[in-house]
Amino acid sequence: MPGYTTRNLTLHIGGEEYRLRALSDRQQFIDREGAADRAGISSAQWSLFGQPWPAGCVLAEAMSSFDIAGKRILELGCGLALSSLVLQRRGADITASDYHPLASSFLEYNAALNGLPAIAFHDLPWATPDATLGHFDLIIGSDILYERGHAALLSALMLRHAHPAAELVIVDPGRGQSSRFVRAIRAQGYECSEERMRFDEAETKPFPGRLLYCRRPAAVTAS
Prior knowledge:
The chain is of the alpha/beta class. It has helices spanning about 35-40, 55-65, 80-90, 105-115, 150-160, 180-185, 220, and strands spanning about 5-15, 15-25, 70-75, 95-100, 120-125, 135-140, 160-170, 190-195, 210-215. A seven-stranded mixed sheet has the order 5-4-3-6-7-9-8, sandwiched between helices. The chain has a two-stranded antiparallel sheet with strand order 1-2. Helix 5 (about 150-160) runs parallel beside helix 6 (about 180-185). The longest helix is centred in the last third of the chain and has 12 residues, at about 150-160. It starts with 5 loop residues before the first strand and ends with a helix. The model has no long low-confidence stretch (mean pLDDT about 90).
């Protein structure tokens, strides 16, 4: 990546090896053409997409065995898109999405690095309706509830892009916004459950992180 220093990582997910090119640290910021301003990304947040986060690894592990048969799947805020790589290796119908200007190039490189076909990518700012994206049977994301307004943005996005009997899998490291999201999504007819999980070996119970699973039965939406 011109102008950036990167590192290569090897991660083991679901008993398989995945290689990732990531940014070498969290302090890199280059914006000669104003892409950060156009996307509304601050210099402090610019390099965060390019790191493998614990929540992303938890989601990827969940996707290594999740039922994907016949499902069109969308990953939100994909960053380095580890879960999308896992799903692509499993032969899923997966679309990765993010609004960071560098996400698509890292995705393309990392898919090739793992010997995978190119993964569909969609530039998706959450607040902007996009009629071209369509609807999905399974929508996933990791650490995407990190600001107060994200619960409302994401629940509105589900209204636009989730099929009537859709499933949602959201991994949250405990940033305090998941309850707002669950309340909003239950109002849309979803049934939700959660599994508390250790994201770091140093964590002790009760673990702050959780895997949220929500499903909207077809019978609810059809009535």
